Amino acid sequence: MADKTIRVVTRAPDGTIRERDFNALDELENQHEKIGIDDCSTDLSLRGFPVFRGLIGPIPDGKTVVRYESPDIFEVLTKEWSQKKTKRRRRKSAVPAPMALPTNPNAAPISNEFV
After folding, report:
1. Which of 61, 38, 58, 57 is nearest to 48 (CA)?
2. Residue 4 has what pLDDT?
3. Is 71 inside any structural domain?
4. Residue 75 neighbours by CB distance under 10 Å
5. Structure pTM?
6. Where are the alpha helices (DSSP H) in the chain?
7. What are the beta bridge partners of residue 17?
8. How many structural domains comprise the chain?
């Protein structure tokens, strides 16, 4: 936990998005009420980080940053993320055509009738 930067994303009074970075959890714990510890994150490096009242997180934001967001910012950023269109990738090489099987002139003809 010591090597991670803690980023808190909230809305400024003028309506813009404000990000504030903390080097230690102690600074954040002084400003927000700790209500638990994250013990179920799929990102194992986040397990053990505190959960704060009024903030959503911890959320991974790269390898060295842990993010907490206010509920309104979480909603806005999630909507933007879900509406983002992804580019479709084209294959770089064409799929090779199937090879023709060699024919045997002495082979019996194939019939679809069952005996």
Report:
1. 38
2. 81
3. yes
4. 12
5. 0.65
6. 25-31, 71-83
7. 11
8. 1
Answer yes or no: are the C-beta atoms of 97 and 79 closer than 8 Å: no
**Is 16 among the domain residues?**
yes
Question: Does residue 34 fall inside a structural domain?
Answer: yes
| Domain assignment present for 35 | yes
The pLDDT tens digits of the residues spanning 24-40 come to 888 888 888 889 988 88
Tell me how far apart the alpha carbons of residues 51 and 74 are, in angstroms, rounded to a whole number. Answer: 15
In the block, tokens 């983002």 appear at 84
Give the residue numbers spanning the domain of 42. 5-82
Per the CB < 8 A criterion, the answer to whether 59 and 35 are in contact is no
Would you say 76 and 18 are in contact if contact means Cβ atoms under 8 Å apart? no
Bridge-partner residues for 18, per DSSP? 10
Q: Which residues contact 67 (CB under 8 A, 6 or more apart)?
A: 7, 8, 9, 57, 58, 59, 60, 61
